[in-house]
Amino acid sequence: MERSLVLVKPDGVQRSLVGEVITRLERRGLRLAGAKFMQVGKALAEEHYAIHKGKPFYDGLIAYITSAPVMAMVWEGPNAVAAIRQTMGATRPLEAAPGSIRHDYALEVCRNITHASDSPENGEQEVALWFKQDELIAWSRDADKWIFEK
Ligand code: DAT
Ligand code: MG
């Protein structure tokens, strides 16, 4: 079982795509483990995007993620990280596979709707950065046995 942080970023929230993102992840079979609607402060933004510090788009990235509220979530399931990134599509919307969220709803890399963790290790790190332990729910769904092989 893997976990991924998923953010509907400010453009996705402003465009009323929160429900669409949740619907797609639910339909995929992934299980929600936590969610909060929040305004991201500069310190969290800088820690989250620390790996991009120094890149030409870094300042714009921090301004973008702090510009309006985001929907922060934790989704889990077998191979959740790869599955969620596939559902989101490639970073650049014009390279995202047809049917993916970034293909279907975005045009520009700096307005690409969502964030998702890029490895199981980063998934755990990002979940710990964004959520306190008591904000996460460990639960099982009745449908799990029809979606998860074991
Ligand atoms: P992803 O969000 O697919 O994990 P990433 O981690 O490489 O992509 O980059 C984080 C975000 O930074 C990405 O969603 C949008 C922005 N970004 C990446 N490359 C960019 C570029 N060349 N110009 C502008 N923004 C960029
Ligand atoms: Mg990334």
What's this, in brief?
The protein is of the alpha+beta class and 150 residues long. 40% of the residues lie in helices and 17% in strands. The protein has a single domain, classed as Alpha-Beta Plaits (2-Layer Sandwich), CATH 3.30.70.
Summarize the amount of helix as a percent range: 40-55%
Distance between the termini: 10 Å
Overall structural class, as computed from helix and strand content, comes to: alpha+beta
Average pLDDT over all residues: 98
Oligomer: single chain
Give structural attributes.
single chain, 150 residues, alpha+beta, Alpha-Beta Plaits, 4-stranded antiparallel sheet, 8 helices, 4 strands, 17% strand, binds 2'-deoxyadenosine-5'-diphosphate, binds magnesium ion
Textual characterization of the structure:
This protein has 150 residues and is an alpha+beta fold. Helices cover 40% and strands 17% of the residues. The chain has a single domain (2-138), classed as Alpha-Beta Plaits (2-Layer Sandwich), CATH 3.30.70. The chain has a 4-stranded antiparallel β-sheet. Bound molecules: 2'-deoxyadenosine-5'-diphosphate (DAT) and magnesium ion. 2'-deoxyadenosine-5'-diphosphate (DAT) is lined by residues 57, 61, 91, 109-110, 112, 115, 118.
